[in-house]
Structure formats: structure tokens, C-alpha cells
Design a protein that fits this description.
The protein is an alpha+beta fold and 171 residues long. The protein has 3 helices and 9 strands. The protein has a 9-stranded antiparallel sheet with strand order 1-2-3-4-5-6-7-8-9.
Length: 171
């Protein structure tokens, strides 16, 4: 009698379906794992710093260097292929550093041991600093859209709004 055997046909059918479902889940997990692994490898391979020449910079960046930093010698130019965007960094032999966005607009300028080129500083910012901090030099200047932030050699940080009015002073 078939009823006295250890497994019925229905049991075998159920077990077979459970095995198929388990294999399907395992296949999906493995596929997702491999997809994540490939995506991670792609992101890692396509990001990071790469040495380039000055002529590989966007024209706007080249023009900024030619106009404001022509008396300085470039020692390193890098392109950072970030995950969401790219940027460029130029290092000069005197320690000055300029960071440019993907379009070649400067985002940050550091002049740790030299004078920031006056012509690159917005006039209203220059006038304010000449009046309030006449003996101080700008060591770092950042631009966020139309807003500016400067760090002076005395440690004072000043933020300017889009109209170049002082928004915050941090001593």
C-alpha cells in the first residue's frame, strides 16, 4: 500500500517546490550580491585623483591661473573624478592651492605663505577688509555660489552673503 511509505506523493511534491523556492531565493541573493560588487568596483575605478596637465583643465580655470597666478609655478594638477561630480586642484611651488569645480570656476583658494591676488577678491570684500582688518592678509577664500568666506592670517573667519555684506565673523 502506497500510504504506508514514509513520504506520500504530495509530500514529495511539496518538498520539491520548497527546494525550488529556496534555490530561486539563493539565485536572487547571489545576483544582487554580484550586482553590488560590480557597481562598487565601477564606482571605485571611476573615482579618485588623477594627475593631468594644465592644458587639460577647463578653459575658465586656465584663464583664472593666467590672469591671477601667472607669477607662480605649477607643480601639480589633479582631476578628482568624484562619485557625483568632478573637480580640479592646482598646486603651486610656493604652497598656494586652487580648487576648481567641473566647469573651471574656482571654489577655494589657499595662500598659506603668500599674498592672495587682489584682483580675484571681490571689491566690496577688499574694501571691508582694508577698513576693518588693514594689517591682515587673506589666507583662504571659498566661494559658494554668490557667497564668500575668507580666513585671515590672524585666524578670523568672515562670511559674506550674496550681496557681499558681512553675515558672520568668527574670532
Amino acid at each position: 500500500n502506497s500510504m504506508t511509505s514514509a513520504f506520500t506523493t504530495e509530500d514529495l511534491f511539496t518538498k520539491n517546490n520548497e527546494r525550488k523556492e529556496k534555490m530561486k531565493r539563493s539565485t536572487i541573493k547571489l545576483t544582487l550580491f554580484l550586482l553590488c560588487l560590480c557597481l562598487g568596483s565601477y564606482i571605485t575605478a571611476s573615482t579618485g585623483d588623477r594627475h593631468i596637465t594644465k592644458s587639460e583643465l577647463p578653459m575658465t580655470a586656465q584663464n583664472t591661473i593666467g590672469k591671477h597666478f601667472k607669477d607662480r609655478n605649477i607643480v601639480l594638477v589633479t582631476k578628482d573624478n568624484g562619485f557625483m561630480d568632478k573637480s580640479y586642484e592646482v598646486v603651486f611651488n610656493n604652497g598656494d592651492i586652487i580648487e576648481f569645480d567641473s566647469n573651471g570656476q574656482w571654489k577655494e583658494i589657499e595662500c598659506p605663505d603668500s599674498k592672495m591676488p587682489e584682483a580675484i577678491i571681490p571689491q566690496k570684500v577688499r574694501e571691508y577688509l582694508k577698513k576693518k582688518f588693514p594689517r591682515s592678509l587673506i589666507r583662504k577664500m571659498e566661494r559658494h555660489g554668490l557667497k564668500y568666506e575668507v580666513e585671515l592670517d590672524n585666524g578670523v573667519e568672515i562670511k559674506f552673503d550674496k550681496n557681499l555684506n558681512v553675515k558672520e565673523i568668527d574670532h
